[in-house]
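Reading is simple: each integer encodes one residue's backbone shape. The lines below illustrate:
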Amino acid sequence: MKGTPLAEGFRGQALHFASADLRKELARHPLSAELSAPYIGWFPRALNHYRERPEGADENIFIYCTSGRGWFEIDGQQHELSRGWALLIPRGTPHRYGADESNPWSIHWAHFEGHEAPDYMSRLISVGYTIAVPPEVGRQIERLARESYHVLATGHTLRNFLLVAHSFRHLLGILLLKTGAFDGKSTVPPSHDFSKNIEFMHNNLSRPLALRELAKQAGLSPSRYSALFRAQTGTAPIEHHIGLRIHAACSLLVTSTLSIKEIAARLGYEDPLYFSRLFRKTMGTSPSDYRRGAKG
């Protein structure tokens, strides 16, 4: 399983390295000193991909597997990494990793550093080196990664690496906050895509939705649905839908002249007093005070 070290690269790969001088600039620059990704790339179907660092890397390592599978070894323990999982390796941690020989992985990867990197790492690996990535989050990660490759393809300049630094901060943010990692549940498998279910919630803001109806739309039993939805979003399904309805109320309070009673009715709340209590509980202020203090 050790594999053969990379020799000629992989068809369709993206590979971007900052020079030593540029890396020093990134470390000093106020817009990238906190976090930067001086090395970043994409290895599709990376047959024979293998890395071994007995002393660890000088930077933190991020790997996200989009297809196929591979393996990694840290602390003498070897584990599989497959589609929909991310791997985080702290700087200075001895490790080995490589692609599976029969079904090699396709991976987005980056080496990152900066003053904030230890804070991100400590939270991301709070319960292990791997994080299950829900499909919707995976699509966001892929989009941010490909935007970075596109930018760097126009030149390895300070300006371009600053753009990548901010994109990569966004990437780490959604990896932390839109998975179970933030709640210490990074090992929950991404077994269901709830994007269509949440779209269903958006399309039904004018009425309350029952748990059974939401679970049926997602094709799951109510108990299974509740557990998976909470694991992937951090909120219960009904709570999530209420939050979307209150957010719609906020928009109407700011952009319309509808009365609070009319807004409540439009969102399916027959009792405006109940609506006001729910709004205050969610937003920390009354609908009328929210309207008076509207921004934008």
